[in-house]
Amino acid sequence: MGRKWNNIKEKKASKDANTSRIYAKFGREIYVAARQGEPDPTSNQALKVVLERAKTYSVPKHIIDKAIEKAKGGSEESFDELRYEGFGPSGSMVIVDALTNNVNRTASDVRAAFGKNGGNMGVSGSVAYMFDATAVIGLEGKTADDVLEILMEADVDARDILEEEDTVIVYADPDQFHAVQEALRASGVTDFTVAELTMLAQNDIALDADAQAQFEKMIDAIEDLEDVQQVYHNVDLGE
């Protein structure tokens, strides 16, 4: 599972050149989560998850506050949560999560991003069965053995705990997302390097240089779409 963290690190590092796009996507996601219940993370678990993710991406407070205030203000703007599945070069598989106020536009845009870059859209369920919904929490300042002991004492289950350089990565079932963080906070952890609810491929594939270049171009095209929030895939992009 170490490759998974490498890809997350790469994604987080690459955001530096696209902060305005990243922040806009978080603003939309925070607004939608805040409208799903009370606009308060203490009682709205969906909002709490988004805000924890936003913190690891250093989303400014004013963007978070603006999105929550918009939800509190009774805005009539609404978004549909959509998931698309598709295939890229050489058997690569992709899942795309979107928030949109125009389903037809988003479907057309995502289909075009696949089709113009050597991929094609699949039907619902054609790809998702090869991925597992997973909570991923990263932290520094402790060893994998430390974290294992903390979680065992708190009676919190984890699928795997790995140590990569100075970072410990915890993989757990999605319903353990908050429990893992609370147990670690109780032990003195104050910040997380990653806090994601993601879709991890059960098996990764490697592409040759040409196919990987085409695949990365396709992923960039999909991620650049305004309505796309998250993209998951089964390609090992390496370091």
UniProtKB/TrEMBL annotation:
The keyword Nucleus appears for this protein: no
Residue ranges occupied by any TACO1/YebC-like second and third domain in the UniProt entry: 80-235
Domain TACO1/YebC-like N-terminal: 3-74
GO terms of molecular function: DNA binding
Domain of life: Bacteria
Name assigned to this protein: Probable transcriptional regulatory protein SAMN05421670_2731
Protein species of origin: Psychrobacillus psychrotolerans
Keywords: Cytoplasm, DNA-binding, Transcription, Transcription regulation
